Amino acid sequence: MILVQKNLLLLFVLLVSCNGEDKKIYLVLLEGDPIAFQHVKTISQEGTKLDPNSEASKAYANELTKSHDEFLQSYLERGSYDKIYSFKHIINGVAVHTTPSQIKKLKNAARVKLLEEDRRVKQMTTYSPQFLGIPAVWTQQGGDRNAGEGIVIGFIDSGINPDHPSFAYDPTTNNSFTGNFSGACEEGPLFPQTSCNGKIVSARFFSAGAQTTTTLNDSMDILSPFDAVGHGSHVASTATGNFGVPVVVNGLYYGRASGMAPRARIAVYKAIYPSIGTLSDVLAAIDQAVLDGVDILTLSVGPEEPPEDKLTFLSLFEIFMLAAHKAGTLVIQAAGNEGPSPYSVISYSPWAVGVASCDTDRTYPATLILGNGLKIAGVGLSGATAGDGLMIQYNKLVLAKDAIKINTTLPRIAINNAEECQYPEAFDPLVVQGSVVICTFSAGFYNGTSTLTAIIQTARVLRFKAFAFVANPTYGDFIAEPIPFATPAIMIPATTDTQNILQYYEKATVRDANGLVVRYGGRAAISEGRYASYKGRAPIVSRFSSRGPDYIDQSKSPTDVLKPDILAPGHQIWAAWSPMSVLDPILSGYNFALMSGTSMATPHIAGVAAMIKQYNPSWTPSMIASAISTTASTYDNLGEPIMAHGFDLYTLHTSAPFGFGAGLVNPSGALHPGLVFSAGYEDYISFLCSLPNVDSRIVKTATGGICGQLFENPSDLNLPSITITSLNGSRIVHRAVTNVESKAETYLSAVLPPKGVTVNIEPSWFTIAPQGTQDLHITFNVTQALDDFTFGEIVLTGSLNHVVKMPLSIFPISTKM
């Protein structure tokens, strides 16, 4: 069997390079309705879900698949292509593997609406529930055992670790849940059928794109929903992991982990593999997730770069998310990890919620204590070198490059990289054993060939007492995140601290005329670094979190949509992990990991959205997104405006909506927002058709929507924010709010105007009945032209204590029209 597979693989490789052309995957959007919208005219309310298991749906699915095959056969040479996927539920199209010369035959084919080359995609807790006030929300939901009940969250990621206690079925609770969800459990290596246990209600994997693009590694690219990486498990447990799961790492108890919505169910769609992630697999996963009927779709993954020669809003990835929204699924998307540069968001569209990342007030302080009493703050989840009781145990301090073996015949790489502690054989064991060894960030770490895992291995083999991994003035400061070290260790990321350490070391060290050490006089100890402190300012926008403004094309022309949408904890988040940890050997064997990224922020919002959907089951995706936005806070725990990390690692600056969107999510407030701004599919089509220099035929071709009544400006899309990228003189912006509470309420408007702009709201006050709608007309006038965006806020304060906030991001360029 293995020999046959190898022969088939060889044949495949030969075919790929036929005629001197390498095959690629292409995504082709075709004319004709997909399953979800074939009867859209008979659906009374947008988002009503059709039964995918009905005979009519199954028959239409077969019809579409047959039409895809016939279409490809009629245009492409036999044997020149492979159909990778038929997209049928929310989009009608195919993913085809063929050569550039063959794909040219489809560009002007009668049924082709859009053609795009496949792209690579990448992946973008014990305390964050308390930080966000989630327990108060659980109380309103009937306790943690009921929060999220009846809601299914779909996760498109690297899979899931089904044996983790965060995903165990709780037999004391009801296993049934409401809704029209109908998934399936695809078994495979490390993922038996029993993995779908009532908590995990569905699990599938998508690998055709990955397998077509590269040769997968059988030892880690596991063809089942099993998570060999850890990322997918981390994301899923953050959103909906079981309540109160003990977090134990290296024998130390770090607290109890709980997802935001512990009773929501999990639907897994594995589309990212350690070797590769392809857009075709992700799109197939989106199509299936919406077909299955997930309520919320979590995307902590996304394309590595914007689409070529297309509007950011009209790539196939964005069109799939628009179709998911039209089908009633709320899409939560990571904003990206390319900050702090402006124009770095990868979440563009107003129909998906883009999530930025922030710190919480929890830190894990660690300290290197030198023999002269100097204390150097650092990072590292490790035990101390201390002795019994409170006594500090000092040990010999050794600079790694001073401990290299003399007259060694080791390879030059081992000698040149000795200061990075990568090779145990480079050192004199008698010198480093029982010592605190200083390992330095140098060329190997700068170019990515050296690893902390190798330092840990060196420390273990040579029995270091501890190690300090310090910054190198030649390469500057580095960013350090807490890592659970099995041996006492600390990372010192600031070069100024390194200089202080080395100054002490050199004063205490005796050398001969040749510069060789004859006596190590320096001493050092490492304090306990595994106990949390809760004294910091928070939230602070993470340095890595991508920033706005949103943009419309590769030239990064800004557009009238606020991105990111919302801020959530994404820095140093404890959550479930996969012990295989094939991409992070340093975390191998661990069931929990402390991770950072907008990937970690996104599931916080997904869990909050699940509780809102549970509390308000009839709400549409845009209503949920509005409630999350208008109730957010723009102030930190010190009562001051939210700050952000910038390019300077040690200086904070005041953030703005392009860093945090509407602000930090307020789960309790989002359950009762008072008013919501609602937008549907036709509104998004009108928005697209209103974009400058956009041909309505392009919009119709890409989305199937018809440009009917256009907005005066794209800024008229009924979002819970207002962004104007080019304000000349004056503009009137239109909004409509709906009262989602059970009582009539009177609202009074107030404005914090952006610099250089006056803002007037009509009506300035209004009374609105339950389920009533009120139109708002907001006039902006430029009083001073500026060379950048300026920010403000509209606040609607209700007589029943509801407060509705709407961020303003305006670029005033001229006082005259």
Automatic annotation (TrEMBL):
The keyword Signal applies. It comes from the Eukaryota. Transmembrane segments: none annotated. The keyword Methyltransferase does not apply. InterPro entries: Peptidase_S8/S53_dom, Peptidase_S8/S53_dom_sf, Peptidase_S8_Asp-AS, Peptidase_S8_His-AS, Peptidase_S8_Ser-AS, Peptidase_S8_subtilisin-rel, Peptidases_S8_3, S8pro/Inhibitor_I9. Keywords: Glycoprotein, Hydrolase, Protease, Serine protease, Signal. Its main location: secreted. Residues 55-122 form the Inhibitor I9 domain. Residues 716-810 form the Subtilisin-like protease fibronectin type-III domain. Residues 1-20 form the signal peptide. Residues 148-637 form the Peptidase S8/S53 domain. It is found in: Secreted. The active site is at 157 (charge relay system), 231 (charge relay system), 599 (charge relay system). Belongs to the peptidase S8 family. This is Subtilisin-like protease SBT2.4. The lineage of its organism: Eukaryota, Viridiplantae, Streptophyta, Embryophyta, Tracheophyta. The gene is LOC107013427.
